[in-house]
């Protein structure tokens, strides 16, 4: 289990909780708009689990949860043992995933090791490979969606939207597939120096388009939000 970065206190990564975020290196996708390019390229200094747990024990009064993000955390061999240890220390656990490992998600859920899952939905299924810029096992993605929807924990599906990659129809198609889920969030793209294919390649979708989408899918989900 490799950890390549840690955000000590985050107020935005776990709904209504203060969380420490651990980032794992490596990803099986290559989304051009990815903000964590250094994680995908596995660049940076490794942090030991001992360091993570020493910090968590010291700040236990102030930290409620640990978010495991990436990269793609389910690629890590020691993920199960790492999460088990976090739970034994008494923290909530949130997993951020691209949904390519449904069996790992199922195992973690079966053993009550997760309290929250955030799964990225990259595109309508026929455009997944184009957006993720690699081969994608669509059946695995669908299986993860079903497992998460049928779970009893809190979860969210979320899509990062770029003008160049996602039309209004694309988002409506994704929303129709996910209809009936607890939560779906649209995150508008933000440019930056750490974007995987470089700055100025993608642009945020027009707010007007996102608001039109919001009107059309109102009522599909218990919770729906546009993160602008
Ligand atoms: S956005 Fe997520 S799934 Fe896509 S390359 Fe980056 S870390 Fe991987």
How would you describe this protein?
There is one protein chain. With 228 residues, this protein is of the alpha/beta class. The protein is 32% helix and 23% strand. It has a single domain (5-227), classed as TIM Barrel (Alpha-Beta Barrel). It is globular. The chain starts with a strand and ends with a strand. The structure holds iron/sulfur cluster (SF4).
In the CATH hierarchy, what is the superfamily?
A: Aldolase class I
Using the alpha-carbon principal axes, give the shape: globular
Helix segment count?
A: 8
Strand order of the largest sheet: 1-2-3-4-5-6-7-8
Radius of gyration: 17 Å
Which sheet architecture does the biggest sheet show? Answer: 8 strands, mixed
Terminal-residue CA separation: 33 Å
- What compounds sit in this structure? iron/sulfur cluster
How does CATH name the architecture? Alpha-Beta Barrel
Whole-number tally of structural domains: 1
Count of individual beta strands:
8
Mean pLDDT: 96
Low-confidence stretches are none
Q: State which percent range the strand residues make up.
A: 15-25%
InterPro entries: Aldolase_TIM, NrdG2, Radical_SAM_PqqE_MftC-like, rSAM, rSAM_sf
Protein name: Anaerobic ribonucleoside-triphosphate reductase activating protein NrdG
GO molecular function: [formate-C-acetyltransferase]-activating enzyme activity; iron-sulfur cluster binding
Keywords: Oxidoreductase
